[in-house]
Structure formats: structure tokens, C-alpha cells
Amino acid sequence: MGSDWFRRYGQAPQDGPRLVCFPHAGGAASAFVPLSRTLAPAVDVVAVQYPGRQDRHQEPPVDDIARLADRLAEEMSALDDHRPFAFLGHSMGAVLAYETARRLEQRSAPGPERLFLSGRGAPTAAPSPHDQVRTDAHVLSAIRRLGGTTGGVFQDPDLLAMVMPALRADYRAIGAYAWTPGAPLNVPFTVLIGDNDPVVTVEEASDWRGFSAARTDVHVFSGGHFYLDHHTREVADLVAEALGVVTVAR
What we know:
By secondary structure, the protein is α/β, with parallel strands linked by helices. 34% of the residues lie in helices and 14% in strands. It has a seven-stranded mixed sheet with strand order 1-3-2-4-5-6-7, with helices on both faces. The two termini are 27 Å apart. Belongs to the thioesterase family. Pfam families: Thioesterase. This is Thioesterase II family protein.
């Protein structure tokens, strides 16, 4: 695709919008394969591949949200084919989507037409206490609480050794993140949240309304932090409607 930072899991449509997806802490671009396949061929789904995982596992992971957002704002030029686009970020990815959009707006560069912000409360001036994990044991406990990976990973020392560098870096990044005050974005938001999320309440997610000068819609799904795994079709339909396209029912 002309950039190490993006992955596409299907053929890009000739026209239609693009959805750039930002994974959760410890996650990889492949987390969005189901959503990509559900939205195809109406939407060109492109997923961000952070350094330090999957085919970028030999690269050192980045442990700072600002540096990640700076780089992703630069890398968006690799996708600049004048196609309208939106951002979708889940959990840590929601923060990165938001911060990347802020940088694009500050640079007067083409920006997203909508932000889909999933599984994350609105930013605050101090780091979230839920993100304060200091040891590997605390990281693994946080992942278990969220239900974000299969138990086999925890039981396999080799697999665990492979994923821990990225997990450590991501939790350092999100654990140090504090919102820098600025004007609301001139972009509509769609906020998505599970009604049984163990770390984000519906009220905290609804607080994203204060960060957009445009309309903000909040959608609540049944399930926990990774509700998306069980509601891919519903989320795809919501995304398609917001982007003004029609998907094929499967």
C-alpha cells in the first residue's frame, strides 16, 4: 500500500469511502478482518499496523501516544488518493484516532469526515487510573479483565514472550496519556460502547460529546469491552449508514 503502517484485507473498491481502523492496546491490524469483510466491497477498510506486532514484530514498539499520532498523521499522505475517509478506533485506538485527527486539522490537511470512537471514555486532563499498570503481572491482569485474548496465549511462554513487548509499550503509552486542551474538532463523532464494559461506563463514553463541534451520536451494544466481536454486523451497518453506503447482507 506504499506504507508499512497500513494493511488492507480485501480489494479496494473503485470508489466509495475509506475507513481507517486503529487497534486496541496489544492489538494488530488483523483485529479488523471481520469488519473489513463485512463492509466489503462498499467501504475500503484499511487497518493500522503498529510497530512491534505481527509482520512488524522485529521493530521496536512505540510507547508514546503523541509520537504515534504524529507519525500516523504523516503516514496518512500515503493514502491520499482524494477518497473521502473516516477513522474508527477501539479502546487505545480511539485515542489515537482522535489525536491523529487533531493533528490533521492543525496542519490544515485533509481529515476524516467522521470519527467512530469505540470502547473508550472521553479524554481527561490526567491519565486514566484504569490504564495505570506498572508490571507484567498487572498488564496480564488488565487483559484478562477486558477479555481481550484467549487463555492459550497466557499458558504458552513462547507466545507470551512474543506479545509482551507490544503490550508493555501500549500500556506505557496509554498510561501516560493526558489530554492537551484544544478546540473541539469540526468532525461528527459516533461513539460505540458495550453496556457491560468493565472499565468504561456509558456516561464516560458519552462525554466525547464535548470534544466535537459537530453532532455526536452514542450507540450502546450488549457486551463487554470487546462487544465488537459479537456485533460485527450491527457495527458494520451503523458505519455504512453513517458513511452513506449500502453493504451486502451476509
